[in-house]
Amino acid sequence: MRSYLVLRVVSKLLMPFILLFALYVQFHGDFGPGGGFQAGVIFASAFILYALIFGVKDAGAVLPRGILRFGIAMGVLLYAGVGVFNLLVGGNFLDYNVMAKDPTLGQHLGIWLVELGVGLTVASVMVTIFFTFAGHRDRPQ
Amino acid sequence: MAITVIAIVKIRNLFAVVMLGSIFSLLAAAMFVVLDAVDVAFTEASVGAGISTVLALGTLALTTDREKKPIHTKLVPLCVVFLTGAALIYGTLDLAPFGSKNAPVHTHVGPTYLAEAQEKTTVPNVVTAVLASYRGYDTLGEVTVIFTAGIGVILLLGNWRRERDSGDDQNA
Amino acid sequence: MFLDYFNYWIVVFLMMAGFYIVIAHDNLIKKIVGLNIFQASVFVLYISFGKITGGTAPIIAEGFSVYSNPLPHVLILTAIVVGVATTALGLALVVRINEAYGTIEDDEIHKADEEED
Lengths: 141, 172, 117
Known about the structure:
In chain A, 75% of the residues lie in helices and 0% in strands.
């Protein structure tokens, strides 16, 4: 794939737009279609595109294994952490009404945090799965 | 969509089968848009036509490319499929007609969610509000399933970036 | 009456085709593709339950009064994501089976297992 100049240039141009679109879908999931899952998958697809064109090794230098595994765990921890925080503050588990002074504001904050956790985990898992599949050929048989 | 599925049944070149599966997912996403389910269409298009296809192509690269000729007769599976299909069609005769307002699914919490979601959560997208707030516990389980799938793939296929010390020495 | 139920019957046909692929073909990758088809047609069935004629997407906006039911959308969103998780794990298993047995045809794997015993 190194010799296809058009593919390399176009994918390098497109990657920031894909990432921006993923962030847009993530944070505008409240007002239009979207939300955590879709944003995570689109975010992962930018890095998968980079790995398809430039090779898994270069892509692995951009997102090293440690950061990906940190991302996978952090998303779930964020979600469960919001729930436990609600427990500590005085409400039920995952009851967002107690998160801020005003119940509706608390709901909005809770939904925002939870979608962020979901997006983080989904993006990290998709990228990890793809890198695992693609890098598997190097193993000794 | 029916034509795509019949083609998948008949064709033995696995690359073509995977591509037709991706086309099927895309057609299903278009169908979801027609049925007013925009969030679901978004997810199905990105996940079904994107990630599933990429992973299946990766699997094809790591295994073979063609399906072998079948040796068993296909009579028993065909009978099972016909019987199940007939039973399902008999079941659908009891349903409300397509698109009616009086179907039982619309009588319980659906209208309540539509009416109250914006006041209680200031979020216009009712699907996101229900997913993250009213049914937040289910979404926690779903994130855990994704997490488990990621861990499972890491365990099954090993380290994806083997330290190629000998290779790097030769290149340097 | 035919027009009322035609939608459901087409989806039942797609579901049965996916089911047939899973139980009749021996190749593991084709089985997984068939499973995906089965899941996708079940999703179409559920979403078509939630549609109301004349309604619109369940995003509250000015000027619309009839919305489609959001509850099936939420369930199907979760189901799609779980489906891709199982597909990824299934494909990883297929790669490992290929490394262990040298083939991905179901009957050859069975024969290899029986010969070991």
